[in-house]
Specification:
- The chain is mainly beta.
- It is built from eleven helices and 58 strands.
- It is globular and about 105 Å long.
- Helix 1 packs parallel to helix 2, helix 3 packs parallel to helix 4 and helix 5 packs parallel to helix 7.
- The protein has five domains: 195 residues, Galactose-binding domain-like (Jelly Rolls); 77 residues, Immunoglobulin-like (Sandwich), CATH 2.60.40; 264 residues, Glycosidases (TIM Barrel); 100 residues, Immunoglobulins (Immunoglobulin-like); 269 residues, Beta-galactosidase, Chain A, domain 5.
- Bound molecules: beta-D-galactopyranose (GAL).
Length: 953
């Protein structure tokens, strides 16, 4: 006898896209036809396998009174049923396509509804639309099986009018977590089953709109726009503002203002058929590949983009409109001009927002088969004809849904799916259906199927070679423009090196910018950890905090990486020499008329005067030298500088008047170093102490005990930092990964050997050698202390000894203060900065609490350094640096920070630990990308630096 489990769910493992659904068509939010949202509470039952329960639940009259409830849209694993799973590219099930595991969590969903008054199901038809269900669903209405589908982040519609009753309708949906479709959805993200986008019933009155395609091009030579709306159901198209009133299929050419991401001009129109009026928002623009460049309206564009996954820390990929809007507004306020919808079409409302506020969009298909890389891409569905219908179905569902958005300028076939005939078929179909946009796919290294040469994480030197056209490649590829569809891996502290990339992008026409990986950390709100990441739900396979690699934290608070990116990609460059500033409009289309400029003048970091600066409304690409006013007369000397800022001149949809879009600082007179004349000297007293001016030391160890009334503990050389995700690097990175090397060489466990304490003349000298167990290299470190009577000066000399083969994480001193809360400083701020993430650091006077100096990375790591600090005050001490220093203060030690896995592992102690660093190693992007560029590496070498301490308490 043979036994095979019930086959009730055979469609689950069928490579076909599904059955029963209507052909894909354009998506639009609302028309005058009635609709009924079926979002809300649904009855829910979870089973461990696809066939544990029969389908009698779909029958009218079934009693689901004992079932749980879930919210739709939503993921059941985020609502207390089962748990999320995070893997980057490994399939969390055996790879045996199209088979899936017997353990296949299956969610039965039930929704009961009545039709609103006045909705006559007999008048025309009714369509039931699912905007997103992961990963496979079978649907019954009033007991009738209406079909099944896969393609999680794509819409599926069913004709249901004939099944509807005025009241007492039962919609039953059985959703399986795993299906053949899962093989096509191996994106680096949480696996989150459920009905996670809207479910809507759409009345389709007789003569209502079916599918339509808005063609709205712009001729940059004549300034004319041409509109033609092709519609399956004939009707009329009106655009009152343009005086357009035409039949569908008929073109009209009129003068228009073009749509661009910088000037997102939309015209309101209506498509009216006999049975329906559909509002249109029309943007006229023309996308083309010309002269080897991506051009819009005749001009090349430079993408300053981000990759956006849909994410909410409590609701996963079930986003509401406000969250989508928050993303768009945050992007616009941070000078971002482009989004790649990695790695699936977003909720359609997001694209409406991109049209409205202005973002270039690469709309990416819901396709990734990355896990096949583990078997050298054998059996990859994209190179297997049996799967091609599913791939074409996905391509069509994306293109048909989103084709009417002016913001969408490029279609992307998917991500990390290798290469194969299926992708070629998708590309051919898309090119045939929509010749008005370009096609992208990063995995197509020879650009056989694509119109853009695209790569991810290529290092600076390679990108420069590509810019110069020296990268070789096929003849076709050499004719194409280049983008980095992913770069600047924003995991934890970083990414570093963005300014260096931008400078390269701006140097070569062929380089049309890039998209930071990625927008948001996918941390899941969690009582145990604040935010959970991979492994926190006991997953058998997982990729840890690799899922937290965004420019914003899970709650959408900007991380320093976003602030840095905003500065690096600012649309106006402001540079100067003291008497004038050179202002350059770095936009591709808009002039500067939307901006006001203002100057301010700082002495010692404090603004003493400010005013407005007249800057001509430069056209895109133009520059002008603008004269600054006469500098204010200041007495007493001190460091002086100009700060010039570009601000929104009026409220816009995305930012208020006065919002700063760009800035520049121009030094005038340089810093005067702290004067200090040693007087007096160390006095050894009988009680084992040494007095030196305001300070007291331990006579045997040379350890500093106090400065005036301020107790100081543990002052000594420090080279360790809690390694960042970028220090640790990704396991597959071939470059040297310093995090591991530093640990191997014991830089986190340096020993401090005392060689001498010498109280001679005006100086107390403490000689040490700082070195790790097991290794012969070390740092000969000499602390020289002097006083001018009231203040204390420390000069630290460090001489490397032995064979140093790695850079240092940091180099400076650290010490503990028993009471410190507020910090004031003159230096870079307000946020953190490191050698290759310091573009956004503004020189000025800043203050903060110690707690607010911390950057709360989801996985704790080195953070919070302030750059270029001249002086800082905290805990009753004033510290002046010669030269400027990196300042860090926190309520835990570096060792505690290093050991923490989640924010909740850090508990403040009584001591505030202060680091004054002469040097910091850069950050780089090696968590998935190039490491720290040579200029930002902190190589061991002989150095000397000093600090003057004063008790100001
Ligand atoms: C890329 C991939 C992304 C993400 C990123 C690393 O290879 O396309 O989805 O995994 O690396 O975070």
């Amino acid at each position: 006898m043979s036994f095979r489990p019930a086959t009730a769910a055979d469609h689950v493992e069928d490579v076909s896209p599904g059955s029963g659904a209507l052909p894909p068509r354009a998506w639009y939010p609302a028309s005058d036809a009635a609709s009924l949202s079926l979002n809300g509470d649904w009855r829910f039952r979870l089973s461990p396998t696809a066939d544990a329960e029969d389908d009698s639940f779909a029958e009218p009259g079934y009693d689901a009174g004992g079932w749980a409830k879930v919210s739709v849209p939503g993921h059941w694993v985020l609502q207390g049923h089962g748990a999320p799973v995070y893997t980057n590219h490994l399939y969390p099930f055996p790879v045996d396509p199209p088979r899936v595991p017997t353990e296949n969590p299956t969610g039965d969903h039930l929704r009961f509804f009545d039709l609103p008054d006045g909705w006559d199901p007999a008048d025309g038809g009714t369509v039931l639309r699912f905007d997103g269900v992961e990963s496979c669903a079978r649907v019954w209405l009033n007991g009738t099986d209406i079909g099944e589908f896969k393609g999680s982040r794509l819409p599926h519609e069913f004709a249901v009018g004939h099944l509807l009753k005025p009241a007492g309708n039962v919609l039953a949906v059985r959703v399986h977590q795993w299906s053949a479709g899962s093989y096509l959805e191996d994106q680096d993200q949480w696996w989150l089953p459920g009905i996670f986008r809207d479910v809507t019933l759409l009345h389709r009155p007789a003569g209502s709109v079916l599918d339509f395609f808005v063609h709205a091009s712009y001729d940059h030579v004549t300034g004319a726009g041409t509109l033609r709306v092709d519609s399956d159901v004939a009707g009329r198209v009106t655009v009152p503002e343009l005086g357009i009133d035409i039949a569908t299929g008929e073109p009209a050419t009129v003068p228009v203002e073009a749509w661009t991401a910088e000037t997102p001009r939309l015209y309101d129109g209506v498509l009216a058929t006999e049975g329906e009026r559909v509002p249109l928002r029309i943007g006229f623009r023309t996308v083309e590949l010309a002269d080897g460049l991506i051009k819009v309206n005749g001009r090349p564009v430079l993408f300053k983009g981000v990759n956006r996954h849909e994410w909410h820390p409590e609701r996963g990929r079930a986003l509401d409109l406000e969250t989508m809007r928050a993303d768009v507004l945050l992007m616009k306020r941070h000078n971002i001009n482009a989004v790649r919808t990695s790695h699936y079409p977003p909720h359609p409302a997001f694209l409406d927002l991109c049209d409205e506020f202005g973002l270039w969009v690469i709309d990416e298909c819901d396709l990734e088969t990355h896990g096949f890389t583990e078997q050298a891409w054998r059996d990859n569905p994209v190179d297997d004809d049996r799967w091609t219908p599913a791939l074409l179905d996905r391509a069509a569902r994306m293109v048909e849904r989103d084709k009417n958005h002016p913001s969408v300028v490029i279609w992307s076939l998917g991500n990390e799916a290798g290469t194969g005939r299926g992708l070629t078929a998708m590309s051919e179909w898309i090119h045939g259906r929509d010749a008005s946009r370009l096609v992208h796919y990063e995995g197509d290294i020879d650009c056989r199927d694509t119109d853009v040469y695209s790569r991810m994480y290529a290092d600076h030197a390679e990108v420069e070679r590509i810019g110069q056209g020296l990268d070789g490649g096929t003849h076709r590829r050499r004719q194409l423009p280049f983008i980095l569809c992913e770069y600047g891996h924003a995991m934890g502290n970083g990414p570093g090196g963005l300014a260096d990339y931008q400078q390269i992008f701006e140097s070569y026409d062929r380089l049309q910018g890039g998209f930071i990986w990625e927008w948001i950390d996918h941390g899941i709100k969690d009582d145990r950890y604040e935010y959970a990441y991979g492994g926190d739900f006991g997953e058998e396979l997982h990729d840890g905090n690799f899922v937290c690699d965004g420019l914003v934290f899970p709650d959408r608070r900007p991380s320093p990486g976003l602030v840095e990116y905003k500065k690096v990609i600012e649309p106006v460059r402001i540079e100067g020499d003291g008497a004038t500033v050179r202002v350059t409009n770095k936009q591709d289309f808009a002039d500067l008329s939307a901006l006001d400029f203002e100057w301010s003048y700082q002495v010692g970091g404090e603004t003493v005067e400010s005013g407005s600066l007249g800057v001509p409304a430069l056209a895109a690409g133009e520059s002008a030298e603008v004269k600054l006013p006469e500098p204010p007369v200041v007495t007493g000397g001190g460091e002086t500088q100009w700060t010039v800022r570009a601000l929104l001149a009026a409220d816009t949809g995305w930012g208020p008047r006065g919002h700063v879009v760009a800035w520049g600082q121009v030094p005038v007179s340089g810093r005067q170093l702290p004067s200090f004349a040693a007087s007096g000297g160390p006095v050894v007293s009988g009680d084992g102490l040494i007095a030196l001016g305001p300070a007291v030391f331990d006579a045997r160890s040379g350890a500093l005990r106090s400065i005036g009334s301020v107790p100081v503990t543990g002052l000594r050389l420090d080279v360790w930092r809690a390694t960042t995700d970028n220090d640790d690097g990704a396991a597959w990175q071939s470059d040297i990964r310093y995090g591991a090397l530093w640990r191997k060489f014991g830089l986190h466990r340096m020993r401090h050997r005392l060689d001498a304490v010498e109280a001679v003349g005006d100086t107390l000298t403490v000689r040490t050698r700082v070195a790790p167990a097991a290794w012969e290299f070390g740092l000969v470190t000499v602390y020289r202390w002097t006083t001018d009577g009231s203040r204390l000066r420390l000069t630290v000399s460090v001489t490397p000894d032995g064979d140093w083969t790695v850079p240092l994480p940091r180099l400076g001193v650290r010490f503990g203060l028993s009471a410190a809360d507020r910090v004031r400083w003159f230096g870079g701020g307000p946020g953190e900065a490191y050698p290759d993430t310091r573009a956004a650091s503004v020189l000025g006077r800043w203050q903060s609490t110690v707690d607010d100096l911390q950057t709360p990375y989801v996985r704790p790591q080195e953070n919070g350094a302030r750059a270029d600090v001249r002086w800082a005050e905290l805990g009753g001490l004033r510290i002046e640096g010669d030269p400027e220093f990196w300042f860090t203060a926190r309520r835990w030690t570096t060792e505690q920070l290093d050991a923490a896995a989640h924010r909740t592992d850090l508990t403040p102690g009584d001591t505030v630990w202060v680091n004054l660093d002469h040097g910091q190693h850069g950050i780089g992007s090696q968590s998935c990308g190039p490491g720290v560029l040579p200029p930002y590496r902190l190589l061991a070498g002989p150095v000397e630096f000093s600090f003057v301490f004063a008790d100001v308490g």
